[in-house]
Write a structure and sequence with these properties.
Layout: H1 7-15, E1 30-38, E2 44-52, H2 56-65, H3 71-76, E3 77-80, H4 93-109, E4 113-116
Parallel strand pairs: 2-4
Antiparallel strand pairs: 1-2, 1-3
Length: 118
């Protein structure tokens, strides 16, 4: 699979984030990023940023199955992209929410189509 033209920029942005609660006793949540692809819109690529108390792989499967899912992930979700989030997890619930929003904003600021991050 050919990666989007902005891929290396997204990796650089993701590496700027660090977690302060990683490994703590209360660190039971994860932030995750899903690659999106909309072939109907000139092959537009994007990212979905979310947070969960579940395993990110399981959460991705839930999105694709339609359970408490984002419509964007259900329709356009390709795969998880651990390169963009694995270094952060696990974190506390409050930090997962902060990271979700901050990462989504950072990806948007470099011109990436972003869903989630709320």
């Amino acid at each position: 699979m050919t990666l989007p033209h902005w891929w290396s920029r997204a990796q650089r942005v993701a590496r700027t984030f660090q977690s302060s609660t990683k490994g703590e006793r209360t660190a039971r949540h994860s932030v995750y990023v899903i690659l999106l692809h909309d072939p109907a819109r000139e092959g537009r690529w994007g990212l979905y940023v979310g947070q969960t108390a579940r395993d990110p792989d399981w959460r991705f499967d839930q999105h694709k199955a339609g359970y408490r899912s984002s419509a964007a992930v259900r329709r356009f979700g390709v795969r998880l992209v651990p390169d963009l989030f694995q270094h952060l997890n696990p974190v506390s619930e409050w930090e997962s929410r902060e990271l979700e929003e901050a990462m989504a904003d950072a990806f948007r600021s470099i011109g990436i189509w972003v869903e989630g991050g709320h």
